[in-house]
Amino acid sequence: MSATDDSVDTGVVTAPGAATKAIRAARPSRRTVETDLGRKRRARRIGRLLTEAHPDAHCELDHSGPLQLAVATILSAQCTDQRVNEVTPKLFRRYPTAADYAGADRAEMEELIRPTGFFRNKTNSLINLGQQLVERYDGQVPGRLVDLVTLPGIGRKTANVILGNAFGVPGITVDTHFQRLMHRWELTAETDPVKIEHAVGALFERRDWTMLSHRVIFHGRRVCHARKPACGACTLASVCPSYGTGPTEAAPAAKLLKGPRARELAVQAGVDPDLVPPTAVVSDTP
Ligand code: SF4
């Protein structure tokens, strides 16, 4: 029996009331200064709640091996992972090695990756990446941050994605979702991605960094949206200083949940899953 089945009959909230008041009472106050220890404890609690909320968290770019992940990550700039995943099967078949990217016909590659947007720039990056890998790394993607960031199209964020998911080296991926949620949770006030990476890294065990990144990004895509976060259907409400940024009523909040586990997320937050519209479950997460 799933968590959904377990919880449907009990603890369901269809309207604001006692639960909302309890959350307001329990969540951290913006008026009191939080100690470093207090912040670390709250961060760890957030980490545990994210683990429960997103057991399906993973790298959403389909890939097999470091080269495919590097290519998919370059294509994901300004594009949804779903769109990238529609394009990459054919691309990966056509260009199985770094040498294949190095020697690619530009027009043919542009046509293949056109749906991901900025296809001319991305084609340049992919061909240059292939050339650099052949010339400097014997056609293999290197497994060190210092080497990865010297490659075309690969910045620190992409390098951490590759290290964490293709090499098993713990890394924190500071993308737009990660940055927004760290600020909403007031785990850091830093705005520079590298400083955010270090500040948040100090709050969590190193071995948890990669999965933490996936879970935070999942939460940002499915619950804590940039414009209208689903506060009233969020399991982190009791530890979030930004509770109330989005609607706190169950019905409007449930409508904001997204992704294949939207109904389960509602149940975990004590909200009637029938308030989640069917379209939420199949929606494209940004
Ligand atoms: S959805 Fe609301 S309560 Fe949940 S993490 Fe985001 S701002 Fe906080």
Keywords:
about 290 residues; mainly alpha; Endonuclease Iii, domain 2; Endonuclease III, domain 1; 2 domains; about 0% strand; globular; disordered N terminus; binds iron/sulfur cluster; metal ion binding; 4 iron, 4 sulfur cluster binding; iron-sulfur
3D structure, described in words:
The protein has 286 residues and is an all-alpha fold. It folds into two domains: 3-57 and 176-282, Endonuclease Iii, domain 2; 66-166, Endonuclease III, domain 1 (Orthogonal Bundle). Helices cover 53% and strands 0% of the residues. It has helices at residues 3-8, 18-26, 36-53, 66-75, 81-94, 98-102, 106-113, 119-137, 145-148, 156-166, 176-184, 193-201, 209-222, 250-254, 262-268, 278-282. 41% of the residues are buried. It binds iron/sulfur cluster (SF4). The site of iron/sulfur cluster (SF4) has 14 residues, from loops. One of its GO terms (biological process) is base-excision repair, AP site formation. It comes from Plantactinospora soyae. Residues 75-222 form the HhH-GPD domain. Its cofactor is [4Fe-4S] cluster.
